[in-house]
Specification:
By secondary structure, the protein is mostly helical. About 75% of the residues lie in helices and about 5% in strands. The two termini are about 20 Å apart.
Length: about 240
């Protein structure tokens, strides 16, 4: 194998490692976002259950106030009975008292219903609190782990990028230019093996005579994709 091909293979392997590291680095912020979104979802549900409980307690407070007002109203009605002059007025006032007492009976039923609603809302909120706390703790631990992983990957990437620079300096600028141009075009394998008598990059058939030369250690440049075709451990006619 030509020396420049060996260097290009080193560079290609290094670039593969760099690409994988960059992909891992790009995935970390996305994973962090997922965990934060999950935590926000638990916070939103917790807030919703808190609002529900507040609403029930406000309803209870209003019902209690209405009941107290009715009790005061009944007491006022009863105090005025002795001053009424006619049976009609007396009967009408008794009816007012009865209606107000009936209203309080209805309010008592609503208060009992609200108490059951409050108990259920409290239990729901307690469950939501536990779920939220677990989610927040889990997210914090995972984010800390991801930050550690991010730092480690950044360090590895820096080492690989330095190594790449060193390898690139040992490659003839002409070959390096071809390699870099191919990578810029989106290709990730510029040095490839021959597979079933074809270029491993684009599967174009290689002339039989060239196949023999490739197996003998020569490098073949594919006329279609420009790959450097060499004989590798898994190559075949």
């Amino acid at each position: 194998m030509d020396e420049f091909i060996a260097r290009l293979l080193d560079l290609q392997d290094c670039d593969r490692d760099i690409d994988r590291l960059k992909a891992d680095l790009e995935s970390i912020p996305r994973e962090m976002k997922i965990h934060r979104s999950d935590t926000q979802g638990h916070e939103a549900r917790f807030s919703q259950f808190t609002d529900t409980l507040d609403s029930i307690q406000q309803k209870q407070k209003k019902l209690a106030g209405d009941r107290a007002d009715n009790i005061a109203r009944i007491a006022d009605y009863k105090s005025r009975l002795i001053s009424l002059k006619s049976n009609t007025e007396y009967t009408a006032m008794l009816q007012q008292i009865a209606n107000t007492e009936k209203m309080n009976d209805q309010i008592d039923n609503l208060i009992i219903e609200a108490m059951y609603e409050e108990d259920e809302a409290v239990q729901t909120l307690e469950r939501a609190t536990k779920e939220r706390d677990r989610a927040v703790k889990r997210s914090a631990l995972r984010e800390e782990s991801l930050k550690t992983k991010l730092h480690e990957l950044e360090q590895k990437l820096a080492v690989l990028q330095k190594r790449r620079e060193e390898i690139a300096l040992m490659i003839d600028p002409r070959h390096l230019k071809v390699y870099e141009k191919a990578r810029s075009a989106g290709r990730r394998e510029i040095v490839t093996g021959i597979k079933h008598g074809s270029c491993g990059g684009c599967l174009t058939k290689v002339p039989s005579q060239k196949v023999g030369e490739i197996k003998g250690g020569k490098t073949y440049i594919c006329p279609l994709c420009g790959s450097y075709v060499v004989w590798t451990s898994d190559s075949s006619f």
